[in-house]
Amino acid sequence: MTNDVDYFICGKIITREFKEVSMTEPPSDGENSQEPASVERWKEHTTGFDRVRSVAFALQEPRTAGWIADEAYVSEPTTRDHLARLVDLGILVTNDTSGGRTYYPDPIYSRLTALRELVDANTAAELAEQAAEIQRDIEAWKDEYGVSDSSSLRATVAGEDLSADEARTRLRRADDWASAKYHLSLLRDAIDHYDTYTARPSASA
């Protein structure tokens, strides 16, 4: 089957890698705290805006400016300025909650960006091959679990007598399934409109 990370798009793999470093190797408190070498390299080769944008665009759920600032290694006031700019650019959306304002990637921008990446990096035939591979994965999951979609698979966790390990496995597979379905919808969109998306207007005489 296709590797799970194949379904991560729009820079999420790179940001997730740095996020895992920050979670497993947190800097200690105090003036002389040392950051992990990987974080130092990240900061050396990126601007604060780059890191805020990378973390924010990889969000899987809405987060506050403070949370994003910690993950991006940028001060919170500066992070708020960068986030406001990303909102103005239509890259992020906001929601004011009792816990403060949260930020999340704009779904339309995310989809259009993913489509552009697919069309730029693949021919129509390659897109079709990827779509067929994901479709085979989905059909295999249907056969394996006897359900028709990821929501039905999640429901089996509560409806069946399963071990803790099996329950976790099914929940992870349901997430893979939902991600695969979304990626398949992107591929089909790219395939159906490939000529339109790749067309370039000719210069006037």
Question: Would you write up a description of this structure?
Answer:
With 205 residues, the chain is mainly alpha-helical. It folds into two domains: 4-105, Arc Repressor Mutant, subunit A (Orthogonal Bundle); 109-197. It is built from ten helices and three strands. The chain has helices at 12-24, 37-45, 48-57, 65-72, 76-88, 107-121, 124-145, 150-159, 164-192, 194-198; strands at 63-64, 92-97, 100-105. The chain is globular, with a radius of gyration of 20 Å.
Number of DSSP E strands: 3
- In terms of DSSP E residues, the strand content is 5-15%
Structural class: mainly alpha
Largest sheet features: 3 strands, antiparallel
Second-tier CATH architecture of the largest domain: Orthogonal Bundle
For the record, the CATH class of the largest domain is Mainly Alpha
Helix content: 55-70%
Number of domains: 2
The largest beta-sheet arranges its strands as 1-3-2
CATH superfamily grouping of the largest domain = Winged helix-like DNA-binding domain superfamily/Winged helix DNA-binding domain
Topology-level CATH name of the largest domain: Arc Repressor Mutant, subunit A
**Unreliable runs, pLDDT <50, ≥5 residues?**
1-32
Number of helices: 10
**Cα distance, first to last residue?**
51 Å
Instruction: Work out the radius of gyration.
Output: 20 Å
Task: Determine the mean pLDDT.
Answer: 85
The coarse silhouette is: globular
Task: Output the helix-strand order.
Answer: HHHEHHEEHHHHH
